[in-house]
Sequence to fold (293 residues):
Amino acid sequence: MVNNRLHQFLTIVDTGSLKRASEILNVSPAALSKSMKQFEEELGFEVLRSEGRGLAITTKGQEVAKRARPLHEALALLPNQIQSDLENQSVGDRELRIGSFEVFTTYFLGPLFESIGNPSKILLRELSPGKLEEGLLENEIDVGITYIPIPRNGIEYKRVSKIGMKVAGLKTFVNAEFDELPFAVPVQPVVGAPNRIQGLDGWPDDRIKRNIQFRVELMESALSLCRNGHAVAYLPEFIMELHNSTMTSRYHLVSLNAPRVSGTQDIFIVTRKGEAEDSMIKKIARSLRKIGS
Fold:
C-alpha cells in the first residue's frame, strides 16, 4: 500500500495537479485526496498543502519525491526482472550454493568436484553449525554439509555416510600418554547440538577432558601445528589421508592413542524441508559416501 500511495504522490508531483493526477490514475479526486492523507499519516508529516484553488508540494514532500523516486522505479521493475532472470537461467547455469565448514571446504573439494563435475558457477560459504541452518532458512545457500546438526524448524537432515575420527599427530607422539598430548582445538564453540558437542572438531568434551594447549580459528592452523610437531588434533581420517597425500613422509600424521573416544561422526546433507533432492545434491551425497563408510 505504501508503494501504491507513493506512486500516486509522484504522479501528483509530475502533473502538478491533483485533478490531472486522478484522471491518469483513474481514481476520483476525493479518493486520491483521502489516499494522500493516509500517506501523510504514515510518513508523519505533510507532503501537500493548499495553495489558492490548488495544491503545492511542501519542502518535505519535494524531498520525499527526490529520494523515493529511484526506489519506486526500481521496485516497479523488480517483478519483471526476477521473472526474466529465472526464465533465462537454465539449470546448468544456476549457481550451486554450498554451505559448510573447513572440514568440507578445503581438502574435500577435490573429491567433491570429481563427483559433481565442474558446474559453471559455485558459491562456497564458510558456515559453522547453526549458521549453516540459518543460511538455508534465509535462502543464502541451497545445500549444507555437516557432522554437527543443529535442529531448526524448516530444516531436514539426510544421513549419507559416516566418517572415522582420529587423534592425529607425528610419530613422535606415539608413545606419549593421552593426558600429555598437546591438543590444538577450534576456538569457535558449538551451541545447541543435541549430542552436547561443544567444539567444531566434534570432540566429546562433556565426557573426556584433554590437554588443550592451542586454540585456533582454522583447521589448517591446527594441521600446521601438527605437522611441525607442536600439537595433535582430532581430525577426520579422510582429512589425514588427503593431507598426507600432499606432504613428504616426514610430515605425515598418524593415529594416536585416544581411550574411550567412539571415533566416528555421521555426515549429513542439509536442505530446506520439503525441497526435492535434485541431481546435484545426489552427486554431493555420492562424493561424501566415497570418503566415509
